[in-house]
Amino acid sequence: ITIVLNETERLTKLTNSLLTLNNLNTKGMLLDKTDFDINQVIRNTASTFEGTCHNKSIAIEMILTGNEMYVHADMGKIQQVLYNLMDNAIKFSHHDSVIHIETSEKKNKLFVSVKDTGIGIPKEDLDRIFERFYRVDKSHSNQKKGSGLGLSIVKHVAELHGATVELESTEHIGTTIRVVFPQ
Ligand code: ATP
Ligand code: MG
Q1: Which of 79, 89, 81 is CA-nearest to residue 115?
Q2: CA-to-CA separations, 119 to 137, 157, 161, in angstroms, rounded
Q3: DSSP per-residue codes, 32-73
Q4: Partners of 182 in the beta sheet?
Q5: Atom number, ligand 1, closest to the C-alpha of residue 150
Q6: Which of 31, 118, 158, 180 is paired with 79 by a 20 to 30 Å CA distance?
Q7: What is the per-residue pLDDT across 88-116, written as a single tens digit (0 to 9) for each?
Q8: How many angstroms separate the CA atoms of 90 and 116, rounded?
Q9: What is the pTM of this model?
């Protein structure tokens, strides 16, 4: 029953990711933009990982600009981006570690970064991990669940918002992903 449950969960996630990507391609241009506080969305999204973090003794530390940081964007899609980034940061972190989420504002740009001190990404894979279905093929990472669609969704949603995604990662040291929004 556990195996069936795990497989069901895996297929449900895969189907949802495929549907999301498909929608981004067909209806993606139709962003449902509103003004909202991205700091609040970050706090809410982080709280959905409470259970997983507890199980791995991972702490999420948030350094968020002032109290609020308003963006004009599609809230549902941005929530998905934050979810995918936090999901990776937790999944590829070791037990007893800390994940840093930071927002800042500089020269009319808004920065959101998610930083972990997990397994990191080998140099040779860095420019491929945003591709659909691409996963680092190393024994340590292929025991982790996933279909390799999370980051392609991140990239796609960012592009639709005119935002860029910056990646910094060193194997065995950790990974930082920064999304930069125009204001
Ligand atoms: P899914 O997100 O669809 O559940 P996934 O997490 O494997 O599956 P992506 O989120 O697209 O897929 O990430 C692609 C690959 O990039 C991962 O399989 C992993 O090898 C690598 N990766 C992504 N984020 C990190 C991270 N924070 N630390 C280390 N490796 C990462
Ligand atoms: Mg992922």
Answers
A1: 89
A2: 13, 25, 30
A3: -EEEEEHHHHHHHHHHTTHHHHHHHT-EEEEE-SSS--EEEE
A4: 109
A5: 2
A6: 118
A7: 999 999 999 999 999 999 999 999 999 99
A8: 8
A9: 0.94
